[in-house]
Amino acid sequence: xxxxxxxxxxxxxxxxxxxxxxxxxxxxxxxxxxxxxxxxxxxxxxxxxxxxxxxxxxxxxxxxxxxxxxxxxxxxxxxxxxxxxxxxxxxxxxxxxxxxxxxxxxxxxxxxxxxxxxxxxxxxxxxxxxxxxxxxxxxxxxxxxxxxxxxxxxxxxxxxxxxxxxxxxxxxxxxxxxxxxxxxxxxxxxxxxxxxxxxxxxxxxxxxxxxxxxxxxxxxxxxxxxxxxxxxxxxxxxxxxxxxxxxxxxxxxxxxxxxxxxxxxxxxxxxxxxxxxxxxxxxxxxxxxxxxxxxxxxxxxxxxxxxxxxxxxxxxxxxxxxxxxxxxxxxxxxxxxxxxxxxxxxxxxxxxxxxxxxxxxxxxxxxxxxxxxxxxxxxxxxxxxxxxxxxxxxxxxxxxxxxxxx
Length: 406
Description:
Elements: H1 2-12, H2 17-43, H3 45-52, H4 56-80, H5 86-106, H6 110-138, H7 144-173, H8 175-196, H9 208-212, H10 218-238, H11 241-248, H12 256-280, H13 282-303, H14 307-322, H15 324-335, H16 340-370, H17 374-405
Helix pairs in contact: 2-6, 2-7, 2-8, 3-4, 4-6, 4-16, 5-6, 5-8, 6-7, 6-16, 7-8, 7-12, 7-15, 10-13, 10-15, 10-16, 10-17, 12-13, 12-14, 12-15, 13-14, 13-15, 13-17, 15-16, 16-17
């Protein structure tokens, strides 16, 4: 692993600061488009349901289909495209993303819309995984996590700007217009990747057999499990945040988009902090960020009863969860050996499973009659389980290191 990282750092020193900034901008733009299409569906679900003649719960399948596309596409594309030059792969993934969203705009029925959302989700995890590897490759020495955070910044900014803007357009001109905007973002990203990202011949390539070898590494599975369990706690709250803020905090429904923007601003701040923390102390940083998330979720159980404190804690939830992402992505690259692409893309498959699992657990405690603050309490428990997983991972890594030195 050390040899791979060193080779990438040496190759990246040939990249000028100007071209490095341009490449990061292109990668972040792709993240902005992906983040916009992933979350805008939630705000436009009633309109989408009505247009194809299904109920809103059935229309929830559009969101599930996208998440399933992420889970299926991430490992499949990473393994099959292991030998493809990374710039070419990034452009191909964004073309596929654009086609999937164009199919969403044109889909005439429930079945075709489900299929279109599945196709749009396929490149999601692979794009973020490959983009993270490219960013780390182009980064200056000692700034890998910061570079990864820059890529993820596009996803955070999407929650502040892209999703509210697309939702407004979709409500004003029909939901299909929101996805037409995403198609436009996809086309601009394809052009930006082609123009601004340098050829990446020095970036380590693998093959399908080596990539699948990541699945034999205990530390890869432990890191993925940490992300899946820990982030499940955040999604348990986020899924039901609208009803929590209106029914518990007393905010008007019109204020919910503002609250989501506040959450997005927290994500932006968390990305910046997380990149710096991970570059200074990767594993301690992951512990600190997860402890912070657990503490904030516990506090939200009580803060949710006041509109001002509720919004403050919504911001803090965004900060604490987003701060973990650069470290989590970097950790996966560190433990994956020659299978970095698969490991990096699996991170986003794991986070989508966290989305589904967290929403399910949050729904269970609400259905059991514990109220809309219960998901935060359940999320805190999931965060503690995440800390247990991370502790076990550290112990296993230390034992493995001690055994290799004997």
